[in-house]
Amino acid sequence: MFPERLALMEILADVGGRPGIDCGGFCAYCYFKGVKPVPPFGCKHCLPFRKGCDYCTRAIIEGYPGFKPLDAVVFDVAQASYGARPDKVTISGGGDLSCYPDLLKLVRILGQKNVPVHLGYTSGKGFRRGDEADELVDAGVREVSFTVFATDPELRRKYMHDKHPEAALSNLRIFCERCDVYAAAVLLKGVNDGEVLERTCQDLEDMGAKGLILMRFANHPEQGLILGNAPIIPGQDVHTVEEFRDTVTEMNRRYRIRITGTPLWDPETKAPFSLAHKTDRLKSLPELRRSATIITGSIAAPLLERIFSALGGDVNVVATKKDVACLMTIDDLKDIDLSRVKRTVVIPGRMLAHEREVKKELSRDGIDRLIVRGPDRLTVDGEMSISMTEEEVVELELEAFAELIDEINALGV
């Protein structure tokens, strides 16, 4: 399928699929469960005069019509590769890859000429026999992101609605033995934390997994539920940010496999915002010559404050009640004290709001403010950093902060 000429590139093979339908049914904690029709949020992709585009109306709710035909996926990959042989192909989509009927055929096609294939997401709920992983690895799968929740089959049966948990866990073991596996688990307080999490970590270590990404459960709008479906599990408690961070730290200390968390944190690289712990590296950044206000989420705010305090200059950070900055919407700006906001305002690059509405909301005190979108990413969370070194995270952050400072120096007061 691919010519011999080498090119340094990674390609996404999007197979589509619908949450809750093409994944063996909604897990109890799934963020797409009970999603209600919502008007377009607006985003950086929207035209200046129109709120709403494909991304903020369809993509963020995984609005696929279903799995794509095999031929369509292969055609898209061939187009994206521009005739070159990719270094890696990641298969992903809105459903569970183990439920994609042509998964093995697709891997065999993509894995030609020894192109490594990464399964971007599977929970194994589509596996029935227990040995499907062998054929997939033989065909070219070299890396797998596997949602485990817990290695207790009955907990998977109850909370993931997995009809064949033993088969899923058997395939997980095969993947761990034969390729790189990064497991993931959404943590439900009192369900799969505590002793259950300890057992899961030990089992994954024994299987040979490379790492485990712990995901803090969200059950309320301020934690990131913006699709009208909160609460996901009525009455379910959620770990505080501090509790979650302590759990990640303790599990990573006790087990040999690497354990990180999202939206925070990574005990090995200190992400997100490693620079907040390595302020000596900030001296390589450009000098701040103008002032601005950065509006961000509640998790990022104290870390950004530490970085900009060390940089000097006249930049202040204002936190919203939303935990994660890229899930901020226009509603998150309504309670901001504008007396703390300067004439130039930097909002998150991926904030889900239209610039016209942001400007109106942040000028309600009569002051005409300039709205600037920052870089899409200033740092990384545990999902990315788990396969990175500390230096790689720091270098990524230095590049992103240099871009942000350049924006402030160009457009600040």
SSE inventory with pairings:
Elements: E1 10-14, H1 54-57, H2 70-80, E2 88-92, H3 103-110, E3 117-122, H4 132-139, E4 141-147, H5 153-159, H6 165-178, E5 180-187, H7 194-207, E6 211-216, H8 241-254, E7 258-262, E8 292-296, H9 301-311, E9 315-319, E10 344-347, H10 355-361, E11 370-373, H11 382-385, H12 390-411
Q: Strand sequence of the main sheet, in spatial order?
A: 1-2-3-4-5-6-7
Percent of residues in helices: 25-40%
CA-based gyration radius = 22 Å
CA-CA gap between termini: 54 Å
Encode the helix/strand succession as letters.
EHHEHEHEHHEHEHEEHEEHEHH
Average pLDDT number: 93
Q: Which regions are unreliable across 5 or more consecutive residues at pLDDT < 50?
A: 1-7
How would you characterize this protein structure?
This protein is α/β, with parallel strands linked by helices. The protein has 12 helices and 11 strands. The chain has helices spanning 54-57, 70-80, 103-110, 132-139, 153-159, 165-178, 194-207, 241-254, 301-311, 355-361, 382-385, 390-411; strands at residues 10-14, 88-92, 117-122, 141-147, 180-187, 211-216, 258-262, 292-296, 315-319, 344-347, 370-373. The longest helix is centred in the C-terminal third of the chain and has 22 residues, at 390-411.
